[in-house]
Write a structure and sequence with these properties.
The structure holds 2 protein chains of 2 kinds. By secondary structure, chain A is an alpha+beta fold. Chain A has 5 domains: about 130 residues, Four Helix Bundle (Hemerythrin (Met), subunit A) (Up-down Bundle); about 100 residues, Alpha-Beta Plaits; about 60 residues; about 180 residues, Heat Shock Protein 90 (2-Layer Sandwich); about 140 residues, CheA-289, Domain 4 (OB fold (Dihydrolipoamide Acetyltransferase, E2P)), CATH 2.40.50. Chain A has 20 helices and 22 strands. By secondary structure, chain B is an alpha/beta fold. Chain B has one domain: Transcription Regulator spoIIAA. The chains are: A alpha+beta, B alpha/beta. Chain A: Its EC number is 2.7.13.3. Chain A: It comes from Methylobacterium frigidaeris. Chain A: Involved in the transmission of sensory signals from the chemoreceptors to the flagellar motors. CheA is autophosphorylated; it can transfer its phosphate group to either CheB or CheY. Chain A: It catalyses: ATP + protein L-histidine = ADP + protein N-phospho-L-histidine.
């Protein structure tokens, strides 16, 4: 499993992000640590722990094992202090300050050279050893759970949530008992979690209870894929092992160690740290912004104030009785200027929310490698287009659907090394996770070079599960069949595997993507592989729209897709059998009538056709409309209800409050051309 | 298929993964009063267990999954009792 290195620029950006974040975290943690020296305040201790934990998460994205080892050891030490297994004294504070000091120096070295300085390995080893001896002193005395000491004694300080369960345990083991309360996230099934599957891994389980987290909804409205459970348990397994089992869901777990020894019960009812694998979501929710962007915003705000002042002068002239018609040019200029500035201001502000997909993509290589190993497969993951920027919410919402697609690709797509060898393919399968910008949209795709989807199998499965009426099923072409994998209740795994079988179907992927305002398509060739594409909005966008009319109706066409506007004598639009086309600038351009694309009646055909020439990727296509009706800047809102209707991007409001439908050139023309190609095939 | 309906009984067989939660819930809602036979079941995803907890069908036999038989069966009985009381 390798992770194709992206461009040098991107890695540099990433390191710069890390450096900025590390400086903040180290400084904040060091200040908190100094405060801890005076009095052991659990809230402060938690903050230090979280800072170190976040820093560790971010450092783990890079290949700096010595730094990671120190942060990991510090995290363990601070965690033990939080749980009351270790005293928050000068020993821990001094050592942690030394660790932070090292992290700070290494961060600066990384900023300067991109690598850890010489001697880091030795220093790292010393610090790690320091934590180790703190946690297990040479004398070996304060083991948190000394065996044989007052067996069976129930500590008085069990947290409320564990008390009831504790009363049901008849025979307590000699050692410490760990009480754990686990409230899985409602969407945890989508992430592939099986909460009770974790509980199974505790051989020392003493008691277990399950209860609804919120009162059960009426049976008819049950959402089987929303987890609504609280798991409470007691176990005799050593705390470290319990911790290891629940390490991926720490943010959902509360742990208390019920030590049998007197005076040392340490119920830590604080929820464990919020687990954030992406360094971006550090505990205090802040946004790191390039100073240049702020400067640009301030400059724009200044320009806007100036423009308003100019408008104010015009208003004053109007108030003093100047001829209104004479003021029109000044008003137009003012309107144009303020319009341009407000659009720019909006674009800059929205830009603050953009982040590179690298933050999401970088989280995949490790889980995929683990998955591949578990499946006994060889898989290479390549990341492409990591620098593509999308809205932060879209980026965050993509993690789970993409993880699911990658799991599917590894589990069902890529064949076993032996089967691949038999098919004449390299033993190692290849999965490509790619992002690319297409205007206001970002296309994220997961491709594998595996076995592809078998339409015959899909047909049989859809029939067996009754997903489609038999007649409709018989009428489906190959693409339609393949699209059925998105139908609720469909799962292509003939046998449910340990990896993707934990997830839910592709319908969950489609749903997650449509919640983000996007859509998905799949393309597959048997024996050659499968590509799933997610087409997503790049940002909440203030789009410049060209207003076009069909009959009495107006529609918005995004200007960025419009290459040029042309008026062409109808005689120059010819029917070539496969559709109409004309020649513009010596190139043949297909001509489609918007009324046909939208299934509207066509008005009369004027002698001169009005064409909006659209650029779609490398191709151009002309759309004929009845009239051009001006321009409009508007915030385009996707309409979830219309998501299934190709050709529409969403709606916007016109100046007088009317709702205007905004067209999506890509799907508007793409669908039609696809259909025509399809019809043309034998 | 690891969820199969046969008369008044819904059989859970083999491993019941997360997807089967939907099938099981649909069958239980469509045929209220159906019992669930789980002795041939060797593993259940939490989502499937949640359906059993929520819809409380009567359970027939001892679950073939030792973990479920030891830890979950008593919870299901209790849930049914609470409902009855």
């Amino acid at each position: 499993m390798t992770d194709t290195r992206s461009t040098g620029d991107l890695v540099t950006d990433f390191v710069a992000d890390f450096v900025a974040e590390a400086r903040e975290l180290v400084q904040a943690a060091a200040e908190d640590l100094l405060a801890l020296d005076g009095a052991a305040d659990p809230a402060v201790l938690n903050r230090v722990f979280r800072a170190v934990h976040t820093l560790k998460g971010s450092a783990a994205l890079f290949d700096w094992p010595d730094m990671l080892a120190v942060l990991h050891a510090a995290e363990d030490g601070l965690d033990a202090a939080r749980a009351g297994r270790l005293e928050t004294g000068p020993g821990l504070v001094d050592l942690s300050l030394a660790a932070l000091d090292a992290a700070a120096r290494w961060t600066e070295a990384i900023a300067a050279t991109g690598a850890l300085p010489a001697g880091a390995a030795a220093e790292s080893a010393r610090l790690v050893e320091g934590y180790r001896s703190l946690l297990a002193p040479a004398g070996g005395a304060p083991d948190p759970a000394p065996a044989g000491q007052m067996p069976g004694r129930i500590p008085s300080l069990a947290p409320d949530w564990a008390a009831g369960l504790l009363a049901t345990v008849r025979e307590r083991p000699d050692g410490a008992v760990t009480a754990l309360r686990y409230v899985p996230r409602a969407d945890c099934f989508f992430a592939g979690d099986d909460p009770l599957g974790l509980v199974r891994r505790l051989p020392g389980l003493l008691a277990l209870d399950l209860a609804p987290a919120t009162p059960w909804p009426p049976a008819e409205t049950i959402d089987v894929f929303a987890c609504n459970l609280v798991v409470t348990l007691l176990t005799a397994d050593p705390p470290a092992e319990v911790d290891a089992v629940f390490r991926l869901v720490r943010d959902q777990v509360t742990v208390a160690t019920l030590a049998p020894s007197a005076g040392e019960p340490a119920p830590d009812a604080e929820p464990a740290s919020p687990e954030s694998t992406s360094g971006a979501d550090a505990a205090p929710r802040s946004l790191r912004v390039d100073a240049g962007r702020i400067d640009a915003l301030v400059a724009l705000a200044d320009d806007l104030a100036t423009a308003r002042a100019a408008l104010g002068a015009v208003v004053a002239r109007a108030a003093s009785g100047a001829d209104l018609a004479g003021l029109l040019p000044a008003l137009r200029a003012s309107d144009e200027r303020i319009g341009r500035l407000s659009a720019e201001l909006h674009r800059e502000a929205v830009g603050l929310r953009l982040q590179p997909l690298a933050r999401v993509f970088r989280r995949f290589p490790r889980p995929l490698r683990d998955m591949a190993r578990q499946l006994g497969k060889e898989v290479t993951l390549s990341l492409e287009g990591e620098a593509t920027e999308v809205d932060r919410d879209v980026a965050e919402g993509l993690f789970e659907p993409l993880l699911h697609l990658l799991r599917n690709a590894a589990d069902h797509g890529i064949e076993s090394p032996e089967a691949r060898a038999r098919a004449g393919k390299p033993r190692s399968g290849r999965i490509v996770l790619r992002a690319e910008s297409r205007g206001e949209r970002v296309v994220v795709s997961v491709s594998d070079d595996g076995g592809g989807l078998d339409p015959a199998f899909i047909r049989a499965r859809a029939a067996a599960r009754g997903l489609v009426a038999p007649a409709a099923l018989a009428a489906l072409d190959e693409a339609g069949l393949i699209d059925l994998i998105f139908a609720p209740g469909f799962s292509t795994a003939a046998e449910v595997g340990a990896v993707s079988g934990r997830g839910v179907g592709m319908d969950a992927v489609r749903e997650a993507v449509s919640r983000l305002g996007g859509r998905c398509t799949v393309e597959s060739r048997i024996g050659e592989g499968t590509t799933v594409r997610l087409i997503l909005p790049r940002a909440q966008s203030l789009a410049r729209l060209l207003l076009v009319g069909i009959g009495p109706e107006l529609y918005g066409l995004p200007m960025e897709a419009v290459d040029e506007l042309a008026r062409v004598p109808r005689a120059r639009i010819r029917d070539h059998g496969l559709g109409t086309a004309t020649v513009l600038r010596d190139r043949t351009v297909p001509v489609l009538h918007l009324a046909d694309l939208l299934d509207l009646p066509r008005e009369t055909a004027p002698a001169e056709a009005r064409l909006a020439v659209l650029r779609l990727g490398d191709e151009r296509a002309a759309i004929e409309v009845d009239r051009f009706a001006g321009r409009l800047d508007g915030l385009v809102r996707p309409l979830p209800g219309l998501a299934a209707l190709p050709g529409l991007a969403g709606t916007t409001l016109t100046g007088d409050g009317q709702v205007l439908l905004v067209l999506d050139p890509e799907s508007l023309v793409g669908e039609r051309q696809g259909q025509e190609r399809g019809e043309g095939m034998p | 298929m690891s969820v199969r309906r046969d008369g008044d009984l819904i059989h859970l067989e083999g491993t019941c993964p997360v997807e089967e939660a939907e099938t099981l819930a649909a069958l239980l809602l469509a045929h209220p009063g159906s019992g669930v036979a789980w002795s041939a079941c060797t593993g259940l995803h939490t989502a499937v267990i949640q359906v059993l907890l929520r819809l409380r069908p009567s359970l027939h036999g001892t679950c073939g999954d030792p973990f479920a038989a030891r830890w979950l069966a008593p919870l299901m009985e209790r849930a049914t009792d609470t409902q009855a009381g």
